[in-house]
Amino acid sequence: MQIIKYLTSGLFLICPGFNFNASYKSIEGSFKIESSFKSDQLKYPRVRSAYSEKWETVKKKLTKAGVDSLNFEIFIRIFKREEKLEVWARTKKTLPFSLVDAYPVCRSSGELGPKRKEGDNQVPEGFYRVSAFQPNSEYHLALKVNYPNTSDLIKGISFLESTRPDPAQMNFWLNLKKGFTYFETNKILPKIGIGTKGDYTY
Fold first, then answer.
1. pLDDT, tens digit, for every residue of 53-75?
2. Region of residue 199 (left: phi > 0; alpha: psi -120 to 50; beta: else)
3. What's the structural domain count of the chain?
């Protein structure tokens, strides 16, 4: 019962950092202040407003965390039950990540448990990278993650075909816990892969 209690209080969606200067090649990314991505994004009024109002605050938080504000990588971690979003960062190609700040989640849908099919109103659980930026979102500014990833596609099929989803869900959480524990211990991201059965490998 202790491990079940631990898992249900620590479910998370991990959204890796961004690479603003190249295509996504890994679970991590980088931010360079003079990137063409920044120039393109600043063409949008909402982005300009957010940058003008918030960048100095963000820069101070990065500096306080010991991170180079001109060249950094970020890692976003979200906990469902706690309704908390954490922003971690590090100077590019250095170790480890430092916690920059944590924010309450204003609103979400569904309940504890992974998203397994379109329309189930669940928020995905797993390891994801940012795949797109939406400066004209209905929600002010938005990030899109690469859902469904390979794990979601495999697990979605097996989950829907299973007559006993509860054990399958618990095994999924146990699998996520390995990645969570690695980061908690080392403050660096493990090398994440996906096995033939949809389990994450570290």
1. 999 999 999 999 999 999 999 99
2. beta
3. 1
